[in-house]
Design brief:
Blueprint lengths: L11 E3 L2 E2 L12 H11 L21 E2 L15 E4 L12 H13 L4 E6 L2 H8 L13 H10 L26 E6 L7 H7 L5 E6 L16 E5 L11 H13 L3 E6 L2 H6 L27
Parallel strand pairs: 1-4, 4-5, 5-6, 6-7, 7-8, 8-9
Antiparallel strand pairs: 2-3
Helix pairs in contact: 2-4, 3-5
Bound molecules: iron/sulfur cluster (SF4).
């Protein structure tokens, strides 16, 4: 899907890959997995192969879609683009060459701001800091950057018309219009923040959604933005608003921007909220009504 979205912190979704496999408790009620099953049933072309039933599901096998690569080239109006609302861009089965093409598209469309959220920040760090070994002292990421530039040339076997314009020199590295984030649902996955710190990115962010436990003492050094949210939908797990309060405070202490997205459906039910997901700030305790964005370069 490359569509307008109801996600509060973005404006558009772009899915050059679809499908995924669950890797941690935050994935238990993955909305994309449920949605893929429905889209398969509706005959949507991107969702016709089934993933491993233990970790994935109908229509949710990891797939790359070269024909989706050029979509952002057609969007003239600048917008915030959530990359892969229906997948994880750094899933192990997304080839590096395809990642290079995705980054080439983002470099060629500096009018847009791209927000990539992954539960696999270790792979993202490895690829995006791919060290140059030619001995000439190129900075970290040089190999990946070269792959990205190569992907945009007409010599590349995977050339996509339209990418060659404006990618060189203008883009810089890391790309100034690409934000990189990781999801952390509870303290067991705090190590993802360490991997995130190793990723070269104009803006680094954490999505603590669904927040499943306290994240006190989470190291937010080098993090610019923290999104916080409770779970909604069937099987939603409870959220303690004290976890949210503490994380908002810690985010401010770290000079990062907090964005409270929703308090989840259990909180909404227990508090007679006007919105089933607990997504209306007017219903919340005043201290939690914060929706800030990071300073951008
Ligand atoms: S990593 Fe994201 S897309 Fe993949 S299964 Fe987990 S929640 Fe779903």
């Amino acid at each position: 899907m490359a569509d307008k979205t109801g996600i509060e912190w973005t404006e558009q979704t772009w899915n050059p890959t679809t499908g995924c496999d669950r890797i941690s408790p935050g994935c238990t009620n993955c909305y994309a997995l449920t949605m893929a099953k429905r889209l398969k049933g509706m005959g949507s072309a991107k969702y016709q192969t089934d993933g491993n039933p233990k970790t994935s599901g109908p229509g949710f096998n990891l797939a790359v879609h070269a024909d989706s690569l050029t979509e952002p080239l057609r969007w003239k109006k600048p917008r915030k683009v959530f990359v892969n609302s229906m997948s994880d861009l750094f899933h192990a089965r997304v080839p590096r060459e395809f990642l290079a093409q995705v980054f080439a598209v983002m470099a060629a469309t500096p009018q847009h701001t791209y927000q990539i959220l992954t539960k696999r920040p270790e792979r993202a760090a490895r690829i995006l800091t791919d060290l140059c070994t030619c001995g000439s002292g190129h900075p970290p990421g040089e190999h990946f950057r070269s792959s990205m530039e190569w992907a945009a040339t007409s010599h590349s076997p995977t050339y996509v018309p339209g990418l060659e314009h404006g990618i060189y020199h203008r883009s810089g590295w890391p790309l100034p219009n690409v934000w990189l984030g990781t999801s952390i649902e509870n303290a067991d996955y705090a190590r993802r923040a360490d991997a995130l710190r190793n990723i070269p990115a104009a803006v680094r962010f954490i999505s603590a959604e669904p927040l499943l436990g306290p994240l006190n003492n989470l190291n937010l050094h080098g993090v610019d933005w923290v999104i916080i949210g409770g779970e909604s939908g069937p099987g939603a797990r409870p959220l303690d608003t004290q976890w949210v309060t503490d994380l908002v405070d810690d985010t401010r202490l770290a000079s990062a921007a907090p964005f409270v997205k929703q308090l989840g459906s259990i909180w909404a039910r227990e508090n007679n909220a006007s919105d089933a997901k607990g997504g209306k700030p007017a219903d919340w305790p005043e201290a939690l009504r914060v929706r800030e964005y990071p300073d951008t370069p």
